[in-house]
Design goal:
Largest interface: A-B, 26 and 28 residues
Strand content of chain B: over 45%
Helix content of chain B: under 10%
Helix content of chain A: under 10%
Number of helices of chain B: 0
Shape of chain B: globular
Order of helices and strands of chain B: EEEEEEEEEEE
Structural class of chain B: mainly beta
Strand content of chain A: over 45%
Number of strands of chain A: 12
Distance between the termini of chain B: 36 Å
Largest sheet of chain A: 6 strands, mixed
Oligomer: heterodimer
Number of strands of chain B: 11
Shape of chain A: globular
Largest sheet of chain B: 7 strands, mixed
Distance between the termini of chain A: 38 Å
Radius of gyration of chain A: 14 Å
Number of helices of chain A: 0
Radius of gyration of chain B: 13 Å
């Protein structure tokens, strides 16, 4: 079974609109972390936001917020007021077992976001 | 400026040749990782290392080898045993603590013909 599922291969969004990128995950470990990365056409992976399984509040970083619904095992990324520079691939990733010595990440297949002027 | 460097950006090799991809970091991070990315796919973990002189296989280690002789450096060798070596290779590093994000280098695009 896929550990990380991103069901939207591509999305087109008008500039200045908000956008939600979907991510569902599968784990039986009660301790885990969820990450979102942005990959522009240059190829480098840029860290955006992190949510720990025990965090009480949804994570926010500037225009990025993570809509964490633990019971549904979903961790959707919300980008407010989208900009042309937001056009990129977006990857959801999970780390199972938040203990020292286990830093492996499992990635989803990504969503290509295109912002339309 | 602190960061991760990977060289070269593009690499071309003939089938049957071993090739070594460089990864250096000056972030004083303990852990380093190598990922492979194929078109339309997410990243898959090849090898990772949490301390010097120690490393573990990831999900797709066959046909690859690594070394970690220095904290700053984690080179990846793509051997002739790797059946489909053409891919985009990304190196990353992280601090050893819970919730830590991984920082990525710019990547090396390897083409084997």
């Amino acid at each position: 079974a896929q550990k990380i599922t991103q069901t939207q291969p591509g999305m087109f969004v008008q500039e200045k609109e908000a956008v939600t990128l979907d991510c569902t995950y599968d784990t039986s470990d009660p301790s885990y972390g969820l990450f979102w990365y942005k990959q522009p056409s240059s190829g480098e992976m840029i860290f955006l936001i992190y949510q720990g399984s025990y965090d009480q509040q949804n994570a926010t970083e500037g225009r990025y917020s993570l809509n964490f619904q633990k019971a549904r095992k979903s961790a959707n990324l919300v980008i407010s007021a989208s900009q042309l520079g937001d056009s990129a691939m977006y990857f959801c990733a999970m780390r199972e077992g938040l203990y020292f010595g286990n830093e492996k990440l499992t990635f989803g297949t990504g969503t290509r976001l295109t912002i339309i002027p | 400026d602190g960061g991760i460097t990977q060289s070269p950006k593009y690499l071309f090799r003939k089938e049957g040749q071993n090739v070594t991809l460089s990864c250096e970091q000056n972030l004083n991070h303990d852990a380093m990782y190598w990922y492979r990315q194929d078109p339309g796919q997410g990243l898959r973990l090849i090898y990772y290392s949490q301390i010097v002189n120690d490393f573990q296989k990831g999900d797709i280690a066959e046909g690859y080898s690594v070394s970690r002789e220095k904290k700053e450096s984690f080179p990846l060798t793509v051997t002739s045993a790797q059946k489909n070596p053409t891919a985009f290779y990304l190196c990353a590093s992280s601090r050893k603590r819970t919730g830590n994000e991984q920082y990525f280098g710019p990547g090396t695009r390897l083409t084997v013909t």
